[in-house]
Write a structure and sequence with these properties.
This protein has 200 residues and is mainly alpha-helical. It is 68% helix and 3% strand.
């Protein structure tokens, strides 16, 4: 069933339909998983498994600010699959079959490449001009929350959305690995932004 769905995305659906599917996918990941992840952290804190890192209160309207900017980021993320689909349809990219092995290897590669990609984008964002006009949006979340994960300026969101596309320049990745990568990515980012750590 998932193979059939991915095949339709790759070769049959129109680009506006693909945009809506990808937008909906990121929307569900963010707004569906963030409150669940946060609730689990709260429960684990009550059981003394996790502890808060920063205990100072959030800035007024911080969550609202993060959700607004995250929604803009998700609008941008919706475009991320379109160049990949275009290159596949033009025969420029050939994606391997989504076997279990190809999918696991693809996910490992994407997560490793994400570290390199994020480092480069983050270094760019700390150039004074970009820090002042772009990256400042993400840094407004002095005390991080799960909702700050996608809280970016639209340009930073655009650059960060190119992880699969830039990886595909160097190595073919299975469609299922590309499809599942946002799940592993957002869970890792929730862990990094949730403001909790294991109890010492």
């Amino acid at each position: 069933m998932i193979d059939s769905f991915i095949h339709k995305i790759l070769f049959e659906y129109s680009y506006p339909t693909i945009y809506l599917i990808v937008f909906g996918y990121f929307f569900i990941l963010y707004f569906g998983l963030a409150p669940i992840f946060n609730k689990v952290c709260v429960i684990l804190e009550k059981r003394n498994i996790l502890e808060s890192i920063h205990r100072k209160p959030l800035k007024k309207d911080q969550i609202k600010f993060e959700i607004k900017n995250s929604f803009i980021s998700i609008l941008v993320f919706g475009f991320s699959a379109l160049p990949i689909i275009y290159f596949v349809r033009m025969g420029i990219l050939n994606l391997p079959e989504s076997t279990f092995t190809n999918t696991v290897i693809g996910l490992i590669i994407l997560n490793l490449w994400n570290e390199v990609h994020f480092y480069l984008v983050h270094k760019l964002m700390h150039i004074p001009f970009f820090m002042k006009h772009v990256h400042v949006t993400h840094h407004c979340s002095i005390v991080p929350t799960v909702y700050s994960v996608y809280s970016f300026h639209w340009l930073e969101a655009l650059l960060l959305s190119t992880v699969p596309l830039t990886a595909l320049i160097f190595i073919p990745l299975s469609p299922l690995a590309i499809f599942l990568y946002p799940v592993s990515s957002i869970l890792l980012n929730f862990a990094g932004h949730c403001n909790y750590r294991r109890t010492m």
